[in-house]
Amino acid sequence: MEKIKGLIDAPFTPMLANGDVNPAPIPAYAAMLAKNGLKGVFINGSSGEGYMLTPEERILLAEKWMEAAPAGFKVIVHVGSCCLRESVRLAKHAAQIGAWGIGAMAPPFPKIGRIEELAAYCETIAAAAPELPFYYYHIPAFNGAFLPMTELLKAVDGRIPNFAGIKYTFESLYEYNQCRLYKNGKYDMLHGQDETILPSLTQGTEGGIGGTTNYNGRELTGIIEAWQRGDLETAREKQNFAQAVINVICNYRGNIVGGKRIMKLIGFDLGPNRIPFRNMTDDEEAAMKRELEAIGFFERCNKF
Amino acid sequence: MEKIKGLIDAPFTPMLANGDVNPAPIPAYAAMLAKNGLKGVFINGSSGEGYMLTPEERILLAEKWMEAAPAGFKVIVHVGSCCLRESVRLAKHAAQIGAWGIGAMAPPFPKIGRIEELAAYCETIAAAAPELPFYYYHIPAFNGAFLPMTELLKAVDGRIPNFAGIKYTFESLYEYNQCRLYKNGKYDMLHGQDETILPSLTQGTEGGIGGTTNYNGRELTGIIEAWQRGDLETAREKQNFAQAVINVICNYRGNIVGGKRIMKLIGFDLGPNRIPFRNMTDDEEAAMKRELEAIGFFERCNKF
Amino acid sequence: MEKIKGLIDAPFTPMLANGDVNPAPIPAYAAMLAKNGLKGVFINGSSGEGYMLTPEERILLAEKWMEAAPAGFKVIVHVGSCCLRESVRLAKHAAQIGAWGIGAMAPPFPKIGRIEELAAYCETIAAAAPELPFYYYHIPAFNGAFLPMTELLKAVDGRIPNFAGIKYTFESLYEYNQCRLYKNGKYDMLHGQDETILPSLTQGTEGGIGGTTNYNGRELTGIIEAWQRGDLETAREKQNFAQAVINVICNYRGNIVGGKRIMKLIGFDLGPNRIPFRNMTDDEEAAMKRELEAIGFFERCNKF
Amino acid sequence: MEKIKGLIDAPFTPMLANGDVNPAPIPAYAAMLAKNGLKGVFINGSSGEGYMLTPEERILLAEKWMEAAPAGFKVIVHVGSCCLRESVRLAKHAAQIGAWGIGAMAPPFPKIGRIEELAAYCETIAAAAPELPFYYYHIPAFNGAFLPMTELLKAVDGRIPNFAGIKYTFESLYEYNQCRLYKNGKYDMLHGQDETILPSLTQGTEGGIGGTTNYNGRELTGIIEAWQRGDLETAREKQNFAQAVINVICNYRGNIVGGKRIMKLIGFDLGPNRIPFRNMTDDEEAAMKRELEAIGFFERCNKF
């Protein structure tokens, strides 16, 4: 199977002030991401508040992203949910509209306790879109599925033909690398934490999915470019800058809340978050803006 | 607001062998529960695999339970989900069909971290069915919402007019009692662990919601009856028996899996569980049956 | 083996202002506890900051409590530590000085992960004082040893002859009762949470070890007395009062910090806590005093 | 303050078959470590079962390591314990015998909950050896002290003059790097996970403390050497090999148990572990040997 090279973006879901999904900005959003070096999008995931959308909204968003995607721009649709039948429906739809691939995280409820449970879950979804690559999205801090990923690979190998790899959003570069080394790189291991792209590159990483790429994609893709041309100093500087940006959003409830608001600050308002997220106040927004100015963010951020 | 006296049952969702929801057994199910002393049902909750059902399935089940409920038999509809808009839709539907009340647990994703997030979540749902009592369903072991319930009561008091109380499925009888004592019993605190009904009665508990009441309701309601007539010995024996039954289901992946299979053993097959639950094998079923026979379960269980 | 009836107190360790252990108050302390209905002491445990004492200090304290104990007043010496050889030394010393029994919690480091590890740990300590009853002190919230206690009983039964029972400081009254029922009450299960004595009595509890008994022992022993004479209303009122007292100490870093300072407020200053505990400020002490006055504590507390 | 370059080893504590500490092998041990590229030792830490030793044993070991250390070979004495007074005693002793530095992890009991508690703990120990650099040993998976290390640096900066840095044994390379960047590298951040040395080097890491360096030190120091001369392929191969070795010990209860037994397999028997560790059986040892042979370990391991 084709492996992803470069960075895929996990977009936010544009919403109106009343919280309705607003597909209008998607074409400009897709164009901006492509312009700033991103290779595609992983939609309706955690950054996109996918679990908080109705199935109909998720379907609408998938269609709009497909329409808006420039040539060669990959659209991967996250179809994970607590209800496997809903996930199957979303996976079939993704295949129908010609998405590049699908992905699913473990359901947060019931909490997954065994590899066999997770494998059965992935198997059912993957089988609903057998022509598309399926990525498991490993983000245990969000859903409690603290299971060993090397064991998942063993469980799905030979059982799920279109299992493509893992979006790995966890701190263990050791486990990540062991997954990479499984059968000499059989599976596509996508790095999933923007704060450690450079360390991960030493292990041979070639692709990843980012959340802060929405507004800081030039610098993050620049880490990989600098590394590939042997310019460690530039790569390190850009990675340190990326961490400085992440330091700021950590002060404002993380990427889903703080990061979505940064989009407004760079001139592309994507609206509020859904409850139970607490939207940022105007004072918080002003304070965050000052923190970002202090690190020179607005000179280096994504451009339209 | 009226407080619930006695025990409400959290029913399993009947399914066909292919996993489709099967409403056919519901009338007999409701009649059986009423006959064995239960005062109502809390449907589409954790025992009912509510999170694993589509919204349409949840709506169908609510309607069928309403049709089947005998006079005075309370139907409380669990409407919690990761998607607040879906929960609102389900709450409105519950009100339309005349349900007695609604309930919602905290969403497992995103994980609730603050009382304010939880209060906003409850507020939005409760406001969608303002004529119905709203119960918060506290089950942190399942969804990670380990928040202090006394703080939740303070947060909703004066803010959510139809906040009725809490289905409290957690081990702290101390916190449970502090909630009971809040403003001299302003809120209806429903005990939610069948293994400790008797200890809870000492604190003044009058109502609860059970999961093992599906098949062991006579004994569990018998605990309360014995206590109320001052017969501690009988109450204790029945509580010990109830624990013995729970010991068995703990050997078979708990009530959702093991308990649902007990229904088949008492002559009322409700079908399989949904993935990611692992259904019991025939060997497991036979072993469980032997364990239940050893404690004399089939003489004391619910009767049709 | 003899089972403990009534409540044992877990005393604080008296210290001078400079943090040195101060044995001087121990005779008066022992007399006060006996006068207020306590049946003995469990020394050098968590309330006594046992892990934060040197072995020499623990030995000194054991000797002083033995000297001060009135006739029939049980002295149980907690000898748990991270260093098993130190625990063995303390156990032998306890036997030499004629202590009534010994106890040990699981070592917090290395974190116990298996019943076999815990059984070997208990076995080695118990064998160092073979004539004394040995109590395992289950307090997983403090040391991370979240292991099933019914499995521990099975593992030690027939292997540790002087294993007497468990001081059970955890919320699960279900597991506690299952331990009680093991082989028809073979082991002495001591209730270990002052906030739920009354609920526990319904299961047949006859003894316990308290931490708030240091200052609220009259009310806590009163719960048992009222229950035994069939006066549920009084028992409930006293249990609710005990919870109200615990509500206060929870505002001041719990019993080890807040409770130790209450001793000063009732006229028996036991000095500071050791680092890393943060001692209460004067302002905090004054605020705590007001909270205690508001619930009428000083009329009902232990008397000298 | 001087920063550590290269790798320091965390040695196992040699024991006799009866579990007594056995200082006899220490001179040969020190010479072997120096010969294989290690720059010093961090003794009586987690690999050394420090918490499971009596204070007298810890003192004896410190003296023996000081006597055995070759010129320029750093001896850092871990003095952390649950009892601060014991830690102070050990710190003073380390200073008296001329140790290069001291270190302490957070006490596992009582569990540290606040930075202020941890800062007071470190301050007291560091003040007992004011001429020596003090390293905080961050290993939250072992002691539950999951606190932000950037906050610790802020808390100790200007308060603990001899606070040298942190032995960072946790997965977050992001937090590790943020600590490195604090005040342009004011503190010495020692990498503490042998499985991710190479990724960490991209951030500027120059020193670390290893546990598998006891038997795999040539390869681990080789990672740094290869990186420094720009040979990424060799560095990556050696890091992958180091992970393969770690994969093996993870099958045998980790480095403290499995790694200590590897010492026997390379001809340097250091005896058993202390309870509650479960020593490896002969069968386990044989199986582990086969796994190590399969990866060619015995050709690449440390040599005497």
TrEMBL record, chains A, B, C, D:
UniProt-annotated binding residues for pyruvate: I209
Active site (UniProt): Y137, K167
Subcellular location as annotated: Cytoplasm
Main location: cytoplasm
GO (cellular component) term, any one: cytoplasm
Keyword Lyase among UniProt keywords: yes
Protein keywords: Carbohydrate metabolism, Cytoplasm, Lyase
SMART domains reported for this sequence: DHDPS (SM01130)
Keyword Glycosyltransferase: no
SUPFAM superfamilies the UniProt entry points to: Aldolase
MF-aspect GO terms: lyase activity
Family: Belongs to the DapA family.
PANTHER family: DIHYDRODIPICOLINATE SYNTHASE, N-ACETYLNEURAMINATE LYASE
Name of the featured protein: Dihydrodipicolinate synthase family protein
Organism of provenance: Candidatus Alistipes intestinigallinarum
Lineage: Bacteria, Pseudomonadati, Bacteroidota, Bacteroidia, Bacteroidales
